[in-house]
Amino acid sequence: MTIGGSSYDHEWWLPASGALFPPVDGEHAGPDGDGSGGAAPVLGHVSGRESDLSRFPRLGWAIVTCMDTRVDIGRLFGGIGPADAHVIRNAGGVVTDDTIRSLAISQRLGNTSSVFLVHHTDCALLTITDPSFARTLSQQTGQEPPWSAGAFADLDDDVRASMARVVTSPFLPRRHAVRGFVFDVATGNLREVRRRELTAH
Ligand code: ZN
User: Fold this and answer.
1) Which residue segment(s) compose the domain that 40 sits in?
2) Is 96 inside a domain boundary?
3) Rounded distance, CA 192 to CA 160, Å?
4) Which of 12, 13, 123, 187 has its CA 20 to 30 A from that of 23?
5) 184 Cα–ligand 1 center, Å
6) What span, in angstroms and rounded, lies between the C-alpha atoms of 41 and 45?
7) The domain that contains 75 carries what CATH number?
8) Is residue 49 part of a domain?
9) Is residue 86 located within the same domain as residue 147?
10) Ligand 1 center from residue 92 Cα (angstroms)
11) What is the 77 CA–ligand 1 centroid distance (Å)?
12) Could you tell me the distance, in angstroms and rounded to a whole number, from the CA of residue 119 to the centre of ligand 1?
């Protein structure tokens, strides 16, 4: 079959059921736990008019947030769509070196100027520590991960630390228009976290 101009020969890529990735034997695969993966997504055509959109986000925003399924950035930010902002997601929504890489490209090649950071309550990264996670991986694989999980114990503190990493990054030309938020998954409230005085280097 052909997807996006590329040819895929492996029959596991898209089985007859339409599931993108069929479950590995013995793995839980979806909310139903029946191996169906729930409502199976199917690769397909979107609109064919994406080329009409600008590569530059219309609002000039870059939003960094957690990959958590409950964080719906479009709804949280007043119904914005894909053309309005760059959305950079990772576990925790933390500002890692790779996040800085994306922000640097977003600002320098995508012309964004405002950075929004969104953490959320009940985040998985509140439930582990970096040493414990690294120890678990090491015990199970025999290898220490070269990265840290980026776990945190206090949402507001980590939002402030993440804002500080943006403000002090020498690679970001527009680093002072940064705001941080905590999304409460229980109430749906988005609360702003005020940053303390920070000094850019
Ligand atoms: Zn999270």
Assistant:
1) 1-44
2) yes
3) 11
4) 123
5) 11
6) 12
7) 3.40.1050.10
8) no
9) yes
10) 4
11) 17
12) 7
